[in-house]
UniProtKB/TrEMBL annotation, chain A:
Swiss-Prot/TrEMBL GO biological process terms: DNA replication; DNA synthesis involved in DNA repair; double-strand break repair; SOS response
The protein's role, per its UniProt record: The RecF protein is involved in DNA metabolism; it is required for DNA replication and normal SOS inducibility. RecF binds preferentially to single-stranded, linear DNA. It also seems to bind ATP.
Record domain AAA+ ATPase: where: 24-365
The name this protein goes by in its record: DNA replication and repair protein RecF
TrEMBL record, chain B:
BP terms from Gene Ontology: DNA recombination; DNA repair
Protein purpose: May play a role in DNA repair. It seems to be involved in an RecBC-independent recombinational process of DNA repair. It may act with RecF and RecO.
Zinc fingers, C4-type class: 60-75
Organism this protein belongs to: Rhabdonatronobacter sediminivivens
Record protein name field: Recombination protein RecR
UniProt cross-references to InterPro entries, sorted A to Z: DNA_Rcmb_RecR, Rcmb_RecR, Rcmb_RecR_Znf, TOPRIM_dom, TOPRIM_RecR
Gene Ontology MF: a single term: DNA binding
The Toprim domain, residue ranges: 83-178
NCBIfam families named among the record's database cross-references: recR (TIGR00615)
Length: 370, 201
């Protein structure tokens, strides 16, 4: 099933006072000068999936300044089970609401309509910075295979926040800890199992794949490469045994919230963190493409890809290879670059959109690519 | 001539009514107008009923239900001594269960759920009282009808642990029904089905 965004209407979203994009299913190339509003548009698309979008912004930051009227996004999407109308909005000072086909729903329901993955320039340092970013990237990939993953993550995090509060308040009620650890171990073991399933699917889609991008060998590790409790029983025991230590630390020290995603540039046997900037980027692209292939193989559906400034750090050959592979995968990728020459040679194979900005307000127009 | 802007007694009543759950300023004005236009049929009986409830309403000292006697009718009715206690979070949940008539034992209202982040601990809920009742009343089964939220389930596991030494059967309503939703919002048939499909913890 091809899943893609068919139309997108923005009102008071970031620099876009009003904007409407009709997408025909081809990959989209957005170009225009710095500050034109390209990333803002990608961010709007990212709000069609659960969470805070590709900049992890709060609802109020998304409203166009200085108007401060709140914002709204409407979209028609071809989802995994037919077309749907999605509306998401936040009035000033309120959190965002989601409607699917007119019905108010929890955000998590968005993950069942579309699978979505993104790469942003901020992720260029993913392999060298803290584990949190890598976990988030991994969990987004997991969610594309298993939409229910998000629920396990929310349950786990809520129970862990409760436990952390008990630890910080130095409360010694064993039954209370036990009740929270019961839930942490069940959702936590589910999280680990889901992550392993996703890594397995990625590995399958990586071996023998026809691609210009370097294969990554991925692994799930604990902090400092230590082994992590996997099963419900082991996790529960580890949490119970760790209470005293955790109380001293003021937080929970074992569990999937401390896991890390390891990656090795397979052809060179080099850990990702030691690779060149361009190689690190190529690894990320390779993983996103593998994810798209795996999703086709496993669930028979194509994810929407948001590739912000993906052309940066890629030489001309790699760029051309990326466009070819995106087209071969038949996925809707939304890609940005400052000049249209970055998309040279794609012609009508990509849908070109020029983004401009005047007096703080962005405008979008359809434009054929060279 | 402009309407009076001084907030009079009626405006004050409208403001009070508008603060009730499910009502806003518009519906409050409509409601108050309805009351004053039908003094004898609606307003006077309502005022008397409110005064009586204000005088007599209290929490049942056994189960936490709200009625107009020290011990509520469910706790005094000998036919409800089935040996089963259904534990709910709020009085509204108890009333929702009663509405369906699917349960013929007695209840225990906790008055909330455990939440470290909101500083609600076991002593803020009626958990010790529950343990005493199980010991004193010859209870054979405790049915936990708590929400499918993390806090609701934490409370369920906690109570199960506290009741462990009593040797009583502890069960929970079939999960997956309330999606972050309270019992109050379920229809009667769903409550009955969840009760019949309860699982031992
Ligand atoms: N809430 C907001 N209200 C109004 N304008 C905003 C808001 N948030 C961001 N902007 C502005 O939107 C403009 C466009 O931002 P965006 O990141 O989309 O640019 P871009 O086209 O991706 O540029 P670049 O090529 O540099 O990445 C910026 O000038 C920014 O100041
Ligand atoms: Mg940008
Ligand atoms: Zn009672």
């Amino acid at each position: 099933m091809r899943c893609y965004v068919q139309s997108l209407t923005l009102a008071q979203f970031r620099s876009h006072a009003r904007a409407r994009v009709l997408a025909d299913g081809r990959p989209v190339a957005l170009f225009g000068p710095n500050g034109a509003g390209k990333t803002n548009l990608l961010e709007a698309v990212s709000m069609l999936s659960p969470g805070r979008g590709l900049r992890r912004a709060g609802a109020d930051d998304l409203a166009r300044r200085p108007a401060g009227l709140g914002w709204k996004i409407r979209a028609e999407v071809q989802g995994s089970d037919g077309t749907h109308e999605i509306e998401t909005a936040a009035p000033p000072g309120q959190s965002r609401s989601v409607r699917i086909d007119g019905k108010l729903t929890p955000q998590l329901a968005l993950g069942r309509v579309l699978a979505m993955l993104w790469l942003t320039p901020a992720m260029d340092r993913l392999w060298t910075e803290g584990a949190e970013g890598r976990r988030r990237f991994l969990d987004r990939m997991v969610m594309s295979f298993l939409p229910d993953h998000a629920e396990a993550v929310l349950t786990y995090e809520r129970a862990m926040r409760e436990r952390n509060r008990l630890l910080r308040d130095q409360i010694g009620d064993d039954a209370w800890y036990g009740a929270l650890e019961h839930q942490m171990s069940e959702s936590g073991a589910q999280i680990t199992a889901n992550r392993r399933t996703a890594l397995l699917a990625l590995a399958e889609a990586t071996t023998g794949a026809q691609t210009a991008f370097p294969a990554a060998e991925l692994s799930l590790t604990g902090p400092d490469d230590s082994p992590q409790p996997d099963t419900v029983a082991d996790l529960r025991a580890a949490l119970a045994e760790g209470r005293r230590r955790d109380m001293a630390a003021g937080r929970s020290l074992s569990g999937p919230h401390r896991a890390d995603l390891g990656a090795v540039y397979a052809a060179k046997g080099q850990p990702a963190a030691l690779c060149s900037t361009g190689e690190q980027k190529a690894l990320l692209i390779s993983m996103v493409l593998a994810n798209a292939r795996a999703l086709m193989a496993r669930r028979g559906l194509a994810p929407v890809l948001l590739l912000d400034e993906v052309a940066a750090h890629l030489d001309a050959d790699r760029r051309a290879a990326l466009y070819d592979e995106v087209l071969a995968l038949d996925v809707q990728a939304w890609m940005t670059g400052t000049g249209q020459e970055l998309f040279a040679g794609t012609g009508h194979r990509l849908q070109g959109l020029r983004v401009t900005q005047a007096e703080g307000i962005s405008a979008i127009e359809e434009k054929e690519l060279p | 001539m402009s309407p009076p802007t001084e907030p009079g007694e009626i405006d004050a009543l409208i403001a009070q009514v508008a603060r009730l759950p499910g009502l806003g300023p518009r519906s409050a004005r409509r409601l108050v107008l309805h009351l004053v236009r039908r003094r004898a049929q609606v307003l006077d009986p309502l005022a008397r009923a409110l005064a009586r409830v204000a005088e007599a309403a209290r929490e049942c000292s056994l189960c936490g239900n709200i009625s107009t006697s020290e011990i509520c009718p469910i706790c005094t009715d000998p036919r409800r001594a089935s040996g089963e206690i259904c534990v709910v979070e709020e009085v509204s949940d108890l009333w929702a269960m009663e509405r369906g008539g699917a349960f013929c034992g007695r209840y225990h209202v906790l008055g909330g759920t455990l939440s470290a982040l909101d500083a609600i601990g076991p002593e803020d809920l009626r958990i010790p009282a529950l343990v005493n009742r199980v010991r004193d009343e010859g209870i054979s089964e405790v049915i936990l009808a708590l929400n499918a939220t993390v806090d609701g389930q934490t409370t369920a596991h906690y109570i199960a642990e506290m009741l462990e030494p009593c040797g009583v059967r502890v069960s929970a309503l079939a999960q997956g029904v309330p999606m972050g939703g309270e019992l109050d919002y379920l229809d009667d048939g769903t409550i009955g089905a969840a009760l019949r499909a309860r699982k031992t913890l």
